[in-house]
Write a structure and sequence with these properties.
By secondary structure, the chain is an all-alpha fold. It is built from 26 helices and no strands.
Protein backbone atom coordinates (compact mmCIF):
# COMPACT_ATOMS: atom_id res chain seq x y z
CA UNK A 1 0.00 0.00 0.00
CA UNK A 2 1.41 3.38 -0.99
CA UNK A 3 2.41 5.64 1.85
CA UNK A 4 0.17 8.71 2.05
CA UNK A 5 1.68 11.98 3.26
CA UNK A 6 0.36 13.23 6.61
CA UNK A 7 -2.57 15.58 6.42
CA UNK A 8 -1.35 19.13 6.05
CA UNK A 9 1.97 18.10 4.43
CA UNK A 10 0.84 17.28 0.89
CA UNK A 11 1.50 19.80 -1.91
CA UNK A 12 -2.22 20.52 -2.14
CA UNK A 13 -2.45 21.24 1.58
CA UNK A 14 0.60 23.50 1.50
CA UNK A 15 -0.79 25.35 -1.50
CA UNK A 16 -4.15 25.80 0.23
CA UNK A 17 -2.40 27.11 3.34
CA UNK A 18 -0.39 29.55 1.24
CA UNK A 19 -3.55 30.76 -0.52
CA UNK A 20 -5.25 31.27 2.83
CA UNK A 21 -2.34 33.35 4.13
CA UNK A 22 -2.24 35.54 1.03
CA UNK A 23 -6.01 36.03 1.08
CA UNK A 24 -5.90 36.92 4.77
CA UNK A 25 -3.12 39.42 4.12
CA UNK A 26 -5.00 41.12 1.30
CA UNK A 27 -8.10 41.43 3.48
CA UNK A 28 -6.42 43.19 6.40
CA UNK A 29 -8.40 46.36 7.20
CA UNK A 30 -5.77 48.84 5.99
CA UNK A 31 -4.96 47.11 2.69
CA UNK A 32 -8.63 46.41 1.99
CA UNK A 33 -9.52 50.05 2.68
CA UNK A 34 -6.77 51.33 0.37
CA UNK A 35 -7.94 49.01 -2.39
CA UNK A 36 -11.59 49.98 -1.91
CA UNK A 37 -10.81 53.68 -1.69
CA UNK A 38 -8.77 53.75 -4.89
CA UNK A 39 -11.42 51.76 -6.75
CA UNK A 40 -14.11 54.16 -5.47
CA UNK A 41 -12.56 57.11 -7.34
CA UNK A 42 -12.26 55.24 -10.65
CA UNK A 43 -15.67 56.55 -11.87
CA UNK A 44 -14.32 60.08 -11.42
CA UNK A 45 -11.38 59.30 -13.70
CA UNK A 46 -13.70 57.74 -16.28
CA UNK A 47 -15.98 60.78 -16.39
CA UNK A 48 -12.99 63.12 -16.39
CA UNK A 49 -11.47 61.11 -19.22
CA UNK A 50 -14.64 61.43 -21.29
CA UNK A 51 -14.46 65.21 -21.00
CA UNK A 52 -10.79 65.07 -21.95
CA UNK A 53 -11.81 63.25 -25.12
CA UNK A 54 -14.57 65.79 -25.80
CA UNK A 55 -12.15 68.67 -25.34
CA UNK A 56 -9.52 66.98 -27.50
CA UNK A 57 -11.39 64.77 -30.01
CA UNK A 58 -9.25 62.53 -32.24
CA UNK A 59 -11.10 63.75 -35.36
CA UNK A 60 -9.59 67.03 -36.65
CA UNK A 61 -12.90 68.41 -37.94
CA UNK A 62 -14.55 68.02 -34.55
CA UNK A 63 -11.48 69.46 -32.88
CA UNK A 64 -11.88 72.72 -34.81
CA UNK A 65 -15.61 72.95 -34.14
CA UNK A 66 -15.18 72.39 -30.39
CA UNK A 67 -12.31 74.85 -30.00
CA UNK A 68 -14.52 77.59 -28.55
CA UNK A 69 -15.95 75.17 -25.97
CA UNK A 70 -12.62 73.71 -24.90
CA UNK A 71 -12.14 75.82 -21.78
CA UNK A 72 -15.61 74.93 -20.50
CA UNK A 73 -15.13 71.24 -21.32
CA UNK A 74 -11.96 71.20 -19.23
CA UNK A 75 -13.78 72.31 -16.08
CA UNK A 76 -15.03 68.77 -15.24
CA UNK A 77 -11.46 67.56 -15.79
CA UNK A 78 -10.22 70.05 -13.19
CA UNK A 79 -12.76 68.96 -10.57
CA UNK A 80 -12.00 65.24 -11.10
CA UNK A 81 -8.32 64.81 -11.91
CA UNK A 82 -7.42 68.17 -10.35
CA UNK A 83 -8.49 67.10 -6.84
CA UNK A 84 -8.15 63.35 -7.23
CA UNK A 85 -6.00 62.95 -4.11
CA UNK A 86 -8.65 64.67 -1.99
CA UNK A 87 -11.26 62.13 -3.13
CA UNK A 88 -8.82 59.27 -2.42
CA UNK A 89 -8.25 60.55 1.11
CA UNK A 90 -11.98 60.79 1.73
CA UNK A 91 -12.74 57.33 0.30
CA UNK A 92 -9.93 55.49 2.10
CA UNK A 93 -10.68 57.13 5.46
CA UNK A 94 -14.41 56.45 5.15
CA UNK A 95 -13.91 52.76 4.34
CA UNK A 96 -11.24 52.17 6.97
CA UNK A 97 -13.34 53.85 9.67
CA UNK A 98 -16.18 51.46 8.94
CA UNK A 99 -13.84 48.48 9.15
CA UNK A 100 -12.45 49.75 12.46
CA UNK A 101 -15.89 50.18 13.99
CA UNK A 102 -15.76 54.00 14.03
CA UNK A 103 -18.34 56.45 12.79
CA UNK A 104 -17.28 56.89 9.13
CA UNK A 105 -18.27 60.55 8.87
CA UNK A 106 -16.69 61.56 12.18
CA UNK A 107 -13.43 59.85 11.18
CA UNK A 108 -13.38 61.06 7.58
CA UNK A 109 -13.68 64.81 8.25
CA UNK A 110 -10.48 65.03 10.36
CA UNK A 111 -8.56 63.13 7.67
CA UNK A 112 -9.74 65.51 4.96
CA UNK A 113 -8.98 68.56 7.12
CA UNK A 114 -5.46 67.28 7.84
CA UNK A 115 -4.82 66.60 4.17
CA UNK A 116 -5.97 70.08 3.17
CA UNK A 117 -3.74 71.57 5.87
CA UNK A 118 -0.77 69.75 4.37
CA UNK A 119 -1.63 71.23 0.97
CA UNK A 120 -1.35 74.82 2.22
CA UNK A 121 1.69 76.70 0.93
CA UNK A 122 3.46 78.25 3.97
CA UNK A 123 4.71 81.18 1.88
CA UNK A 124 1.35 82.33 0.54
CA UNK A 125 -0.99 80.77 3.10
CA UNK A 126 -3.24 79.43 0.33
CA UNK A 127 -3.94 75.96 -1.00
CA UNK A 128 -1.43 74.66 -3.50
CA UNK A 129 -3.13 72.75 -6.35
CA UNK A 130 -0.33 70.23 -6.96
CA UNK A 131 -0.76 68.15 -3.75
CA UNK A 132 -4.51 67.88 -4.39
CA UNK A 133 -4.02 66.18 -7.75
CA UNK A 134 -2.17 63.06 -8.85
CA UNK A 135 1.00 64.06 -7.07
CA UNK A 136 -0.68 63.80 -3.67
CA UNK A 137 -2.40 60.41 -4.00
CA UNK A 138 0.14 58.49 -1.92
CA UNK A 139 0.17 61.25 0.69
CA UNK A 140 -3.63 61.18 0.81
CA UNK A 141 -3.58 57.45 1.57
CA UNK A 142 -0.99 57.94 4.31
CA UNK A 143 -2.99 60.76 5.92
CA UNK A 144 -6.28 58.86 5.71
CA UNK A 145 -4.86 55.75 7.35
CA UNK A 146 -3.00 57.73 10.02
CA UNK A 147 -6.05 59.85 10.90
CA UNK A 148 -8.35 56.85 11.35
CA UNK A 149 -5.78 54.84 13.28
CA UNK A 150 -5.11 57.82 15.58
CA UNK A 151 -8.82 58.21 16.30
CA UNK A 152 -9.12 54.48 16.94
CA UNK A 153 -6.16 54.55 19.33
CA UNK A 154 -7.57 57.49 21.30
CA UNK A 155 -11.06 56.00 21.37
CA UNK A 156 -9.88 52.63 22.69
CA UNK A 157 -8.04 54.41 25.51
CA UNK A 158 -11.10 56.57 26.26
CA UNK A 159 -9.17 59.75 25.49
CA UNK A 160 -12.22 61.28 23.85
CA UNK A 161 -15.16 63.35 25.02
CA UNK A 162 -18.06 61.09 25.94
CA UNK A 163 -21.51 62.61 26.42
CA UNK A 164 -24.41 61.01 28.33
CA UNK A 165 -26.47 58.39 26.56
CA UNK A 166 -29.46 60.77 26.48
CA UNK A 167 -27.62 63.00 24.00
CA UNK A 168 -28.49 62.26 20.35
CA UNK A 169 -25.99 59.91 18.71
CA UNK A 170 -25.01 62.39 16.01
CA UNK A 171 -24.05 64.94 18.66
CA UNK A 172 -22.15 62.34 20.66
CA UNK A 173 -20.14 61.24 17.64
CA UNK A 174 -19.29 64.83 16.80
CA UNK A 175 -17.89 65.51 20.27
CA UNK A 176 -16.10 62.14 20.29
CA UNK A 177 -14.16 63.30 17.22
CA UNK A 178 -13.17 66.61 18.81
CA UNK A 179 -10.05 65.40 20.65
CA UNK A 180 -8.74 63.28 17.74
CA UNK A 181 -9.29 66.22 15.39
CA UNK A 182 -7.42 68.60 17.70
CA UNK A 183 -4.49 66.21 18.15
CA UNK A 184 -4.31 65.41 14.42
CA UNK A 185 -4.40 69.01 13.21
CA UNK A 186 -1.86 70.04 15.83
CA UNK A 187 0.56 67.34 14.71
CA UNK A 188 0.09 68.23 11.05
CA UNK A 189 0.50 71.95 11.74
CA UNK A 190 3.75 71.34 13.61
CA UNK A 191 4.99 69.08 10.82
CA UNK A 192 4.12 71.44 7.97
CA UNK A 193 4.61 74.90 9.49
CA UNK A 194 6.73 74.32 12.58
CA UNK A 195 9.28 71.95 11.06
CA UNK A 196 8.75 73.00 7.44
CA UNK A 197 8.42 69.42 6.17
CA UNK A 198 6.66 68.99 2.83
CA UNK A 199 5.08 65.58 3.40
CA UNK A 200 3.96 65.23 -0.24
CA UNK A 201 7.50 65.77 -1.53
CA UNK A 202 8.89 63.42 1.14
CA UNK A 203 6.46 60.63 0.24
CA UNK A 204 7.25 61.06 -3.45
CA UNK A 205 10.97 60.79 -2.70
CA UNK A 206 10.53 57.67 -0.56
CA UNK A 207 8.26 55.97 -3.12
CA UNK A 208 10.29 57.03 -6.15
CA UNK A 209 11.95 53.60 -6.52
CA UNK A 210 8.52 51.92 -6.66
CA UNK A 211 7.16 54.57 -9.05
CA UNK A 212 10.16 54.22 -11.32
CA UNK A 213 10.28 50.41 -11.16
CA UNK A 214 6.66 49.90 -12.23
CA UNK A 215 7.24 52.14 -15.26
CA UNK A 216 10.11 49.98 -16.51
CA UNK A 217 9.98 46.76 -18.49
CA UNK A 218 11.48 44.56 -15.74
CA UNK A 219 9.17 46.06 -13.13
CA UNK A 220 5.96 45.61 -15.10
CA UNK A 221 7.03 42.09 -16.12
CA UNK A 222 7.43 41.15 -12.46
CA UNK A 223 3.97 42.57 -11.82
CA UNK A 224 2.52 40.54 -14.73
CA UNK A 225 4.15 37.36 -13.42
CA UNK A 226 2.83 37.94 -9.91
CA UNK A 227 -0.74 38.73 -10.96
CA UNK A 228 -1.16 35.81 -13.37
CA UNK A 229 0.85 33.44 -11.20
CA UNK A 230 -1.37 34.10 -8.20
CA UNK A 231 -4.52 33.77 -10.29
CA UNK A 232 -3.28 30.46 -11.71
CA UNK A 233 -2.95 29.18 -8.14
CA UNK A 234 -6.50 30.23 -7.33
CA UNK A 235 -5.58 33.48 -5.54
CA UNK A 236 -7.05 36.79 -6.68
CA UNK A 237 -3.85 38.39 -7.95
CA UNK A 238 -5.43 41.78 -8.50
CA UNK A 239 -6.71 42.02 -4.94
CA UNK A 240 -3.37 40.85 -3.59
CA UNK A 241 -1.42 43.63 -5.33
CA UNK A 242 -3.88 46.47 -5.93
CA UNK A 243 -3.32 48.09 -2.56
CA UNK A 244 0.32 48.62 -3.56
CA UNK A 245 0.20 49.28 -7.31
CA UNK A 246 -3.24 50.82 -7.93
CA UNK A 247 -2.32 54.22 -6.43
CA UNK A 248 0.83 54.27 -8.57
CA UNK A 249 -1.01 53.44 -11.78
CA UNK A 250 -3.70 56.00 -10.98
CA UNK A 251 -1.08 58.68 -10.35
CA UNK A 252 0.63 57.87 -13.65
CA UNK A 253 -2.67 58.08 -15.54
CA UNK A 254 -3.46 61.50 -14.07
CA UNK A 255 0.00 62.73 -15.10
CA UNK A 256 -0.49 61.35 -18.63
CA UNK A 257 -3.92 62.96 -18.90
CA UNK A 258 -2.61 66.34 -17.79
CA UNK A 259 0.29 66.21 -20.26
CA UNK A 260 -1.89 65.08 -23.15
CA UNK A 261 -4.52 67.73 -22.38
CA UNK A 262 -1.82 70.39 -22.72
CA UNK A 263 -0.67 68.98 -26.05
CA UNK A 264 2.44 67.27 -24.64
CA UNK A 265 3.62 63.66 -24.67
CA UNK A 266 2.35 61.25 -22.01
CA UNK A 267 5.33 60.52 -19.74
CA UNK A 268 4.32 57.08 -18.39
CA UNK A 269 3.91 53.79 -20.25
CA UNK A 270 2.36 51.63 -17.53
CA UNK A 271 -0.35 54.02 -16.39
CA UNK A 272 -3.81 52.76 -15.45
CA UNK A 273 -5.23 51.13 -18.56
CA UNK A 274 -1.98 49.57 -19.75
CA UNK A 275 -2.51 46.23 -18.05
CA UNK A 276 -6.31 46.12 -17.95
CA UNK A 277 -6.66 46.93 -21.64
CA UNK A 278 -3.53 45.85 -23.50
CA UNK A 279 -2.61 42.74 -21.47
CA UNK A 280 -5.94 41.46 -20.13
CA UNK A 281 -7.50 40.91 -23.54
CA UNK A 282 -10.76 39.21 -22.66
CA UNK A 283 -9.72 38.95 -19.02
CA UNK A 284 -6.54 38.30 -17.07
CA UNK A 285 -4.17 36.13 -19.08
CA UNK A 286 -5.76 37.14 -22.42
CA UNK A 287 -8.13 34.18 -22.16
CA UNK A 288 -10.25 35.44 -25.05
CA UNK A 289 -7.58 33.82 -27.22
CA UNK A 290 -8.04 30.49 -25.42
CA UNK A 291 -11.80 30.61 -25.97
CA UNK A 292 -11.28 31.26 -29.68
CA UNK A 293 -8.81 28.37 -29.94
CA UNK A 294 -11.29 25.96 -28.34
CA UNK A 295 -14.35 27.32 -30.14
CA UNK A 296 -14.28 24.46 -32.67
CA UNK A 297 -12.69 21.90 -30.40
CA UNK A 298 -13.30 18.21 -31.07
CA UNK A 299 -13.94 17.70 -27.39
CA UNK A 300 -17.56 18.61 -26.53
CA UNK A 301 -16.63 19.74 -23.02
CA UNK A 302 -13.98 22.22 -24.20
CA UNK A 303 -16.20 23.37 -27.07
CA UNK A 304 -19.20 23.96 -24.81
CA UNK A 305 -17.18 25.88 -22.20
CA UNK A 306 -15.56 28.05 -24.88
CA UNK A 307 -18.87 28.90 -26.52
CA UNK A 308 -20.59 29.69 -23.24
CA UNK A 309 -17.74 31.92 -22.05
CA UNK A 310 -17.13 33.81 -25.30
CA UNK A 311 -19.93 36.41 -24.87
CA UNK A 312 -18.71 37.34 -21.39
CA UNK A 313 -15.07 37.49 -22.46
CA UNK A 314 -15.90 40.12 -25.04
CA UNK A 315 -16.57 42.26 -21.97
CA UNK A 316 -13.38 41.14 -20.18
CA UNK A 317 -15.12 38.65 -17.86
CA UNK A 318 -13.38 35.27 -18.03
CA UNK A 319 -14.53 33.40 -14.90
CA UNK A 320 -16.70 30.89 -16.85
CA UNK A 321 -13.67 29.75 -18.85
CA UNK A 322 -11.15 30.18 -16.05
CA UNK A 323 -13.01 27.87 -13.68
CA UNK A 324 -14.89 25.84 -16.30
CA UNK A 325 -11.98 24.20 -18.13
CA UNK A 326 -10.36 24.97 -15.66
CA UNK A 327 -7.23 27.10 -15.99
CA UNK A 328 -6.78 27.44 -12.23
CA UNK A 329 -4.47 24.74 -10.81
CA UNK A 330 -4.16 23.18 -14.28
CA UNK A 331 -0.41 22.96 -15.05
CA UNK A 332 -1.04 22.44 -18.75
CA UNK A 333 -2.95 25.73 -19.12
CA UNK A 334 -1.19 27.70 -16.40
CA UNK A 335 1.93 27.96 -18.59
CA UNK A 336 0.32 29.76 -21.57
CA UNK A 337 -1.89 31.73 -19.18
CA UNK A 338 1.19 33.33 -17.62
CA UNK A 339 3.21 33.37 -20.85
CA UNK A 340 0.58 35.25 -22.86
CA UNK A 341 0.45 38.00 -20.23
CA UNK A 342 4.25 38.28 -20.21
CA UNK A 343 4.48 38.43 -24.02
CA UNK A 344 1.72 41.03 -24.35
CA UNK A 345 3.23 43.09 -21.53
CA UNK A 346 6.69 43.13 -23.11
CA UNK A 347 5.50 43.79 -26.66
CA UNK A 348 3.04 46.52 -25.66
CA UNK A 349 5.64 48.21 -23.47
CA UNK A 350 8.12 48.22 -26.36
CA UNK A 351 5.58 49.68 -28.81
CA UNK A 352 4.67 52.47 -26.38
CA UNK A 353 8.26 53.14 -25.37
CA UNK A 354 9.22 53.53 -29.04
CA UNK A 355 6.12 55.73 -29.61
CA UNK A 356 4.71 53.37 -32.21
CA UNK A 357 1.36 53.41 -30.41
CA UNK A 358 -0.10 55.89 -27.95
CA UNK A 359 0.12 55.60 -24.18
CA UNK A 360 -2.84 55.47 -21.75
CA UNK A 361 -4.38 58.92 -21.28
CA UNK A 362 -8.06 58.11 -20.65
CA UNK A 363 -9.59 55.71 -18.16
CA UNK A 364 -12.40 53.56 -19.53
CA UNK A 365 -14.53 50.92 -17.75
CA UNK A 366 -12.62 47.65 -17.46
CA UNK A 367 -15.50 45.87 -19.23
CA UNK A 368 -14.88 47.81 -22.46
CA UNK A 369 -14.38 45.25 -25.29
CA UNK A 370 -10.90 44.80 -26.74
CA UNK A 371 -9.89 46.98 -29.70
CA UNK A 372 -12.51 49.55 -28.70
CA UNK A 373 -10.77 49.84 -25.35
CA UNK A 374 -7.37 50.10 -27.05
CA UNK A 375 -8.64 52.99 -29.16
CA UNK A 376 -10.28 54.90 -26.31
CA UNK A 377 -7.58 54.43 -23.66
CA UNK A 378 -4.98 56.01 -25.94
CA UNK A 379 -7.19 58.99 -26.74
CA UNK A 380 -8.24 57.75 -30.18
CA UNK A 381 -5.03 56.25 -31.54
CA UNK A 382 -5.93 53.96 -34.46
CA UNK A 383 -2.54 52.27 -34.25
CA UNK A 384 -3.38 51.06 -30.75
CA UNK A 385 -6.63 49.58 -32.08
CA UNK A 386 -4.68 47.74 -34.78
CA UNK A 387 -2.34 46.39 -32.12
CA UNK A 388 -5.40 45.23 -30.19
CA UNK A 389 -6.45 43.20 -33.24
CA UNK A 390 -2.96 41.75 -33.65
CA UNK A 391 -2.60 40.84 -29.98
CA UNK A 392 -5.52 38.38 -30.14
CA UNK A 393 -3.99 35.99 -32.74
CA UNK A 394 -0.63 36.44 -31.01
CA UNK A 395 -2.10 35.14 -27.75
CA UNK A 396 -3.91 32.39 -29.69
CA UNK A 397 -0.58 31.18 -31.04
CA UNK A 398 0.74 30.92 -27.47
CA UNK A 399 -2.30 29.00 -26.25
CA UNK A 400 -2.66 26.73 -29.31
CA UNK A 401 -0.30 23.79 -28.51
CA UNK A 402 -1.26 23.70 -24.84
CA UNK A 403 -4.98 23.90 -25.62
CA UNK A 404 -4.72 21.00 -28.09
CA UNK A 405 -2.89 18.91 -25.53
CA UNK A 406 -5.55 19.75 -22.94
CA UNK A 407 -8.21 18.81 -25.46
CA UNK A 408 -6.62 15.40 -26.11
CA UNK A 409 -6.24 14.75 -22.41
CA UNK A 410 -9.88 15.64 -21.77
CA UNK A 411 -11.08 13.34 -24.55
CA UNK A 412 -8.94 10.51 -23.19
CA UNK A 413 -10.36 10.89 -19.68
CA UNK A 414 -12.73 8.09 -18.54
CA UNK A 415 -16.43 8.87 -18.18
CA UNK A 416 -17.21 10.90 -15.10
CA UNK A 417 -19.90 8.53 -13.87
CA UNK A 418 -17.34 5.74 -13.71
CA UNK A 419 -14.71 7.60 -11.76
CA UNK A 420 -16.13 10.66 -10.08
CA UNK A 421 -18.21 9.17 -7.29
CA UNK A 422 -17.96 5.36 -6.80
CA UNK A 423 -18.40 5.70 -3.03
CA UNK A 424 -21.78 7.38 -3.53
CA UNK A 425 -23.07 4.81 -6.03
CA UNK A 426 -21.74 1.90 -3.97
CA UNK A 427 -22.85 2.81 -0.47
CA UNK A 428 -24.51 6.13 0.08
CA UNK A 429 -27.65 6.25 -2.02
CA UNK A 430 -28.07 3.59 -4.75
CA UNK A 431 -31.48 4.78 -5.95
CA UNK A 432 -30.22 8.31 -6.54
CA UNK A 433 -27.03 7.21 -8.27
CA UNK A 434 -28.95 4.82 -10.45
CA UNK A 435 -31.47 7.31 -11.74
CA UNK A 436 -30.66 10.94 -11.08
CA UNK A 437 -26.90 11.24 -11.13
CA UNK A 438 -25.85 9.69 -14.48
CA UNK A 439 -27.80 12.12 -16.70
CA UNK A 440 -26.37 15.06 -14.75
CA UNK A 441 -22.80 13.80 -14.83
CA UNK A 442 -23.06 12.92 -18.50
CA UNK A 443 -24.59 16.09 -19.82
CA UNK A 444 -25.05 18.96 -17.41
CA UNK A 445 -21.64 19.77 -16.03
CA UNK A 446 -18.76 17.64 -17.34
CA UNK A 447 -16.25 20.46 -16.95
CA UNK A 448 -16.76 20.76 -13.22
CA UNK A 449 -17.07 17.01 -12.82
CA UNK A 450 -13.62 16.40 -14.30
CA UNK A 451 -11.72 18.84 -12.18
CA UNK A 452 -13.97 20.27 -9.48
CA UNK A 453 -12.02 23.52 -9.16
CA UNK A 454 -14.29 24.84 -6.44
CA UNK A 455 -14.65 23.31 -2.99
Amino acid sequence: MAHEPPRGHSPTDRLAAFADRVSAWTETPILAAIRTGVVAVVPLTIVGGLFVLLANPPIPVWNDQLARWRDLLQVPVAVTFGVLALFVCLAVAHDLAGRRGLDPLAATLPAVAAFLLLAVDPASGSLSPAPLGAQGILTAILVAVSAVELQRWLTRRRLVIRLPAEVPAVVGESFAALVPLTVLLTLVWVLRFGLGIDLTATVQTVCRPLLAALDTLPGILVYALLVTGLWALGINGDNALDAVVAPVFLQELAANTAAWEQGGAAPHVTALGFFTTFVNVGGTGATLALALVLLRSRDPVCRRVARLSLPTQIFQINEPLFFGLPVVLNPLLMVPYVASAVVLTASTWALMEWNLIGRPVVNVPWTTPPVIGHYLVTGGDWRAAVWGLVSIPLAMAIYWPFARRHERRTRASPPISATASPPISATASPPISATASPPISATASPPTGVTNPRP
